Structures are given as C-alpha cells and as structure tokens.
Amino acid sequence: MNNLRKFATEADYSAATLNYPAVSWVVSGDTVHFDKTDPTPTNTKVKLAFTTDSCMGEKQCFLPYDSGEEFIQSMNSITLNGEPLTPGSSSIEITLESNTSYLAEYDLKSGVTDVHGWFDKECEPIGCSSAALSYDILFPAQVTTIGSLNACTDNFIFESTVPPSGSFSLSAGGFHIYVPDSAVNTYKNHEGFSGYAANIYPISDYNGSIPID
What we know:
By secondary structure, the protein is mainly beta. The protein has helices at about 10-15, 70-75, 185-190; strands at about 5, 20-25, 30-35, 45-50, 60-65, 75-80, 85, 90-95, 100-110, 135-140, 155-160, 175-180, 200. The protein has two domains: about 5-35, no CATH class; about 45-205, no CATH class. It is built from three helices and 13 strands. The strands form three sheets. An eight-stranded mixed beta sheet has the order 7-6-9-4-10-11-12-13. The N and C termini lie close together (about 10 Å).
C-alpha cells in the first residue's frame, strides 16, 4: 500500500532511514515524500497470458508443461481462464479460439523455488502460418531459479526483490522486464540482468493482461 508521509525538514526525512525510492516535492514550505514501498507479494502462481489472432481459431497449441514427476508434484493446480486443466500424459494441448485472451496459472506448492526449463517453451499453433504466440509471464517471489527465458515473450514480470538465477539469451528487442519498484537498480546491476538494463522497468508501470496481486 502507498502511504503519504510528511516531514518538516529533509533532515527529518533522512533520519527516518527509509530504504525505498521516493518522489519529493514542496507544499507550503513542507517537504512531502510519497512512500512507494513494495507490497508483500502473496501470489504463488506462475501466470502466462497471451492473445490469439484471427488465424489461430480452432488450431491446437501446447502450453508449457513438463511430464516429469518433479513438475507434477510441484503444482497445486493448473488452470486456463479459471477452469482446471487436466494434462495428458506428456503435454497440455488446447484448442484455441481466434482473437481471444488467455491466462494460464500454474499454482506452485510451498517451497518450490526452481522452475528451470518448465516455462521456456514456445506455443506454436499447429497448422497456422502466424508466428508463435507472444507471452506475458509472471514469476512469483518464491521462485529463485528460472532457467532460460523464452525469446517469444513480450513482458517478463518478477515479483521478487532478489533477482532469480538462470541462463539468459534474449536478443535485444522490444521485450520488457518488470520488477518491484524498489529493486529496479538491483536488477539492472545484477550479473544475469545487466545486459538487459535498458529493458528493465518498475512493476508499477506494467499495464498488461496479467493481474498483479
């Protein structure tokens, strides 16, 4: 939650030892600071959103899924637009509707921190000449290892103030990486993310299709 806090002087503000970015301005001689602390994330789901085009209607598509026992035992549930999904033996195959928005949610069990290799797969509609679907994907704060990042992703959202580990091989382009407001500089200076510093933005700037809890 954002709270408005007022201090009579800059010295009083400094003495408060507030460890977050702040915007300050002057009103009637008093310096006012806007408290932009990050809320404590409660989300436990990896969220993946995409929208189909007119070509993709009635086409089959495979959502990111790993048939290994570790993946299966790491999930409380998997849903698509709020409806439970029942994976097949080795994949999650869905039939797409044209010009439709989808939100897949993978609810991680408590203590699951490593999702290496689970969400770097591309969803290519079978029999469609369009390019692979472009994703927005959100990783909850409990995830500390993500593996590689999918180059077909438009927006990555990380809820943790501590950058996760992984192997990154994205080409420079129009993708965005959204991170907690207080951790923007941390991500930009992190070894794994520093090569994409120009693509990193505060999570408060995100206005895409994934709901931020």
